[in-house]
Each structure stands twice: as structure tokens, then as C-alpha cells.
Amino acid sequence: MTFLLSRTFISLTLRPSCSISMANLTTNAKSRLRGVVFDMDGTLTVPVIDFAAMYRAVLGEDAYKRIKAESPSGIDILHHIESWSPDKQQKAYEIIADYEKQGIDKLQIMPGAAELCGFLDSKKIKRGLITRNVQKAIDIFHQRFEVIFSPALGREFRPYKPNPDPLLHICSAWDIQPNEVMMVGDSLKDDIACGKRAGAFTCLLDETGRYGPDDFSVSGLQPDFKVDSLSKVQNLLETNFDLNP
């Protein structure tokens, strides 16, 4: 099911075949879209990393439970590590790297991703990538699936998501305004926050129904669109945006 969520925090539940822009309801004018930026893990690739296990390994069970209770929108593990001593940071990054390597070994492209990229290419819509994973993982993704995103930024680019700087950097590289770009990702606290803060359109990929109105209310983050499959993004774009070059 595809949902369109108002940029003024009004939520509409839509029928599967309907995707209506709030702008269209009043003016019939469609916003221009010239670029789409994707998250990688869990968006362009099938989620395989056990993040809860990784967080427990890095933080310890007691700290994990405490921080999870204090952070209902999710744990920002990289943020917590930044305040640690160099030795403790190194050990934490080694644990994270091990989990990420396991993810790379099992890497699978998300169903619908290649087709969506082909559609964007046919419309001459630019596509970029922002991930909190490492650049090496991006390179392997490009090589294995032969679907290239440019620019493609890993966590070596600082500050990383949810800071808007990576998305603003991509917009600048494209010479496109943020309000002509959409950020697509599966994380409310990272991807949607990044897109909102940059002034871009946002689309939340929620395959399992993880997020609901309470999550949007608590976080103060309301995606413009919500889909349960990447394969539904093409119809969403065609219905709600001017895709002419």
C-alpha cells in the first residue's frame, strides 16, 4: 500500500491504486523532480545486518537497554561512539566492521531497485546514494549489481546522516535545488530526518509496517510519502511529480 503524507503533518491513507499530492488537490500543479537520493542498507539492498545484535555487542546489554529506552526513534550508534576514548572507539568500529562484512557477504539487491533505476534513467532523473555504511560497501554494491549512483557517499563523508550536509552536497554537485529532489530510505531518524532538514521531498520505505502515526508524532518527522515496496515508487513519482527534464 502507498501512503502520501502531507508536509503539514496531515496523514492520508490511500487506496493501493491512488497516490494524490496535496498540491494537486488545490492547484493541479505538480512539483518538478530532477533527482532521487537513496539510502543503501534496507533500501537498495535487502536488510541482512542484525543491528540490535550489533548494538548490544558495541554497547553492552545494560547500556543497550538504557539507551534504547531513552531513544524511542532508534539508537544512533555512531553518535554514541564519537564521545568515547580512541581505544574504545577502535574496538567499537572493529565490531561494527565485522557485522558490516557479514552484511556484504550476504548482499542482495532490493526487489524493484534495478527497475526503478532504469525508469529514472529513462526520465533523465539523477540518482545518488547516502549511507552510514563504509565506502567499500558502496563500491562492492556498484560492482556486484552494476547499478551506479553518483555521488555515492559513505560515512567517511562527515557529518553523516541525519545531518543534511550529505544531501545538500549531492544537490550542489548536481546543481539542483533540494526542493527538486527526493530522499528515499527505510529509517525515519536517519533518512527522513536528513531529507526534511535539507528541504527535500521524503519517501519512507516501510516494508513491515514498522512505523505508524505515533512514531511520526514522537519524532516530529512526517515523511511526505510512505510505501511498503520499492516497486511502488515509480507510480508515486509519475502520479505526483513533473518528471520532464
Note down, in words, how this protein is organized:
The protein contains 11 helices and 10 strands. The protein is α/β, with parallel strands linked by helices. Helix 2 (51-59) crosses helix 3 (61-70) and helix 2 packs antiparallel against helix 5 (86-105). The chain is globular, with a radius of gyration of 18 Å. The chain starts with a strand and ends with a strand. 36% of the residues are buried. Residues 6-26 have low confidence and may be disordered.
Measure the end-to-end span: 28 Å
Number of E-type strands? 10
Number of distinct helices: 11
Arrangement of strands in the largest sheet = 2-1-9-8-7-4-5-6
Return Rg in Å. 18 Å
The averaged pLDDT comes out at 88
Helix-strand topology string: EEHEEHHHHHEHEHEHEHEHE
Q: In this structure, how is the largest beta sheet organized?
A: 8 strands, mixed
Low-pLDDT parts are: 6-26
Helix percentage: 40-55%
Give the assembly state of these chains: single chain
